[in-house]
Each structure stands twice: as C-alpha cells, then as structure tokens.
Amino acid sequence: MKGAAHFILPGLCEFEEMSFVMHFLRADDLFVDVGANIGAYTILASGIAGARSISFEPSASSFTYLERNVRLNDLTTKVILVKAALGAEDGHIFITDDLGVENYVHFDANPEKSRKIPLRRMDIVLANERPILIK
Questions:
Q1: Contacts of 128 (CB under 8 A, 6+ apart)
Q2: DSSP string, the chain
Q3: Domains of the chain, each with CATH number or no CATH
Q4: Spatial distance between the Cα atoms of 65 and 112, rounded to a whole number of angstroms
Q5: Tens digits of per-residue pLDDT, 13-63?
Q6: Exposure string for 2-12, b = 16+ CB within 10 A, e = fewer
C-alpha cells in the first residue's frame, strides 16, 4: 500500500496536523474522518485522544485495511465505519479501486476500471451528531 508506508516507518508523517488531532480532541468528542484510507487519523483521534470517530472510506480495498486497523487497536466501540463517499446528494458514484491513495472518481460505469459505491450526504449521516473536528 503506497499511501500507508509513510505512516509505518517515520511516525507522524504529517506532524503538525496529526499532533493537532491528538492534542485538540478530548475523550467523547466526535471526530469525523472523511477519506479515512487505512485510518491513521481515526486511530490517533480514538486511540490516543479517546474521541469517538465516524470514518468514511469509499474504496473497498482501503476499507478492509481500515476495519482491520480499528479492530487491531481495539477501537470498535469508539469508531463507526461507513463504506461510502460523501457528496452534495445521496446516490451512487463510480471510483477506481486498488490504487490506494491514487483512487479517483470515474465518470462512466466501466466494471473493469471502477466500482459503484454509495454516495451519502454528510448532513444526513450526521443528523443528530455534533462533530468537534472534521478531516
């Protein structure tokens, strides 16, 4: 996973942003991770800061790693995972998969190059929630 490698060896690869998440959030705050990928920010928010997280990841391959990462860090009671993209209206879009951080929206339904995924409105998904921080 090209996009995950920089989280393993050097530590906080996005030092300022990651430090902010860890120091700003408090236990029971709500953090929303849009485009969570493997969950680096989700793990910092829920595992280090103790916040609740709702994490959105549309890529099936990345979502598998995200689920595993949350489970391995024993955060299943603190994190809600949503396999969807976010947009202006509910529906579906097509994205590439298996490209890691290089996945992109594909504007035609080509089953060899893209997968149909749910598109959700954040204001509807978070209707009764008040996030403190959204990435």
A1: none
A2: -TTTHHHHSSS-TTHHHHHHHHHH--TT-EEEEET-TTTHHHHIIIIIS--EEEEE---HHHHHHHHHHHHHTT-TTTEEEE--EE-SSSEEEEE--SSGGG--EESS--TTT-EEEEEE-HHHHTTT---SEE-
A3: 5-134 (3.40.50)
A4: 22
A5: 677 888 889 999 999 899 999 999 989 999 999 999 999 999 999 988 889
A6: ebbeebeeeee
Share of the chain above pLDDT 70, in %: 87
Instruction: Note the pLDDT tens digit of each residue in 116-128.
Output: 899 999 999 999 9
